[in-house]
Amino acid sequence: MQIIEKYFPSLTDTQKERFGALQSLYTEWNSKINVISRKDIDELYTHHVLHSLGIAKVVSFQPMTMVLDVGTGGGFPGIPLAIMFEEVEFHLIDSIGKKISVVKAIAEELGLKNVKAEQLRAEQAPNSMYDFVLSRGVTRSLPFYEWVKNKFSKNEYNKLSNGILHLKGGDLDEELKELKRKYKVYDLNKFFQEEFFETKKVVYIPRF
Hints:
- It contains 7 helices and 7 strands, in the order H-H-H-E-H-E-H-E-E-H-E-H-E-E.
- By secondary structure, the chain is of the alpha/beta class.
């Protein structure tokens, strides 16, 4: 928990309480339904929570923003971002029902009223509704863009234009050349000092 406060020192008491509850909640649920690798659960705050919050270093979502988290798994990046941005609506989807049941339970236990979790594939999510679509390494950038390119609203609330925010790692040069469109890469090691973030990035792809 200290690592979250280190990089986000202005958290409210409610945010601190919710972030602080994540370790016990995920440890308990992970023992029933495996949503995080067993060896990784001890690194929950660095590898999952702080990694998710890398998006919050790229854009500070404004109230009324609508966000879709595709392939959310156990709720990343959606749950940490929903704690951080309480006036933003998050729609977390995954094709695996067991994972969504964990996300629903954790959101309920945290009292997050701004999270809706559903078992859906990306193409089944509503069109023309979202300001941003998030994902954490679900697939390569080009097929992901094709899945979600019709999901974006024309309304703009944020300094960053509506688009994809994709948490990725490693050498992306070849993958991003496939896009043949505008994008911007944010290196997370510029925001976070830990070794884990050395090759971690947020890839931003505007909706057009």
